[in-house]
Sequence to fold (422 residues):
Amino acid sequence: MTEQFYEAPTVEQVSELVAAKFGKAVQLKGSKPRRVYMSADKGVLFELATYIHDVLNFEQASSVCAVDYESHMTVVYHLSNYFNGMMIELTVDLANDDLTVASVASIWGGANWHERETYELFGIVFEGHPKLERLLTPADYQFFPFRRSYKLRRSD
Amino acid sequence: MSKMWVTMGPQHPFSHGLWTLKVQVDGEVIQDAEPVIGYLHRGWEKECESRTYPQIIPMADRLCYSASMTWSHLYCKVAEEAMGLEVPERAQYIRVIADEICRIQSHLMWLAAMGTDLGNLTIFLWALREREWFLDLNVKLCGQRLTTNFPRIGGVRNDMPYLFERDLMRVVDLFEKRLWDIIALTDDNAIFMSRMQGVGHVTRKEAANLGLTGPSMRGCGVNFDVRRDDPYMVYDELDWKWRSATTETPMDVTRSASRRCSRVAR
Fold:
């Protein structure tokens, strides 16, 4: 690897390095002490995730989840670095007619089940996932229950 | 020898919950495993969609029956951050004390379960006996042993009752003495240690990559504690000592929790 490795990058370093490497494909949404918020285009997600893991040393995908805004869906990744307690909140917007995104399970093993759960609850397909099957709901379940369009009887 | 799949379960030995583990065996060596954890999803987030914010607090308690205060605290903190609310300092201290009480009794619950798993029912009984003191503190503080429904968005439900500090200090002092009895059963017990040490080894890198958290992650050598490295509430103002659990002595965790609780009280 020719790139310099950062064991415990600072908030400024993360923002600058990501902006320099990915340019307009990644929008930085702001930062707080030990927190960086960014939003990425779907196409660069896997490359960005690899960079964040390999170069910036964010070792853990603490959570992968999704939000249904009805107009679109957003996948949210929380990535942690345990050398300085920093966390990146990375969001990827998906259009309703194309709910696919690259899987990061090959980078962070912990993302494997998170992605399966997000798939079965929101119907978002993680491409390249080793085993994208339902985890917490029955295998023959027909619904994606966390979508806004799925109504509980009480809230009708 | 050809490999075959064997189903372990659905009854797990000493069932902490029902689940099935499908294992692929080559002779007597397990090559692969596929857990079937059951249909456990309660649709908590979906339930929350049709409720008001204060109605969610008692639901948050049910996320973990043992350390319920931590979960409702977490939920309240999320709501506070979203609203930009500042919690009064006294409420912050009360929350931290309540959290630490819950943490100790939750660790003791874990130790009791560990004891039964190893067939050592003395550990189980003693840990649960000590745990009752902390549950009594919960009752004094908020009238309920487990699902406490204590934090509120912007504060806590009530102030500490009369002489609560005294009761808390008594319990902590007594617990620190009794802890030596439990340590004699665990850290100083060759049978216990021989069954605990060198089993299920996970490297630091694997632990972080696979998403382990909490004491099990620190046990793998990750030097991180969110209360120390990313402090919330008043943890950064407190004088407390952090202990690494890397020494493979499970009691360290409980011990450090008790110390911390006493520091808070002072």
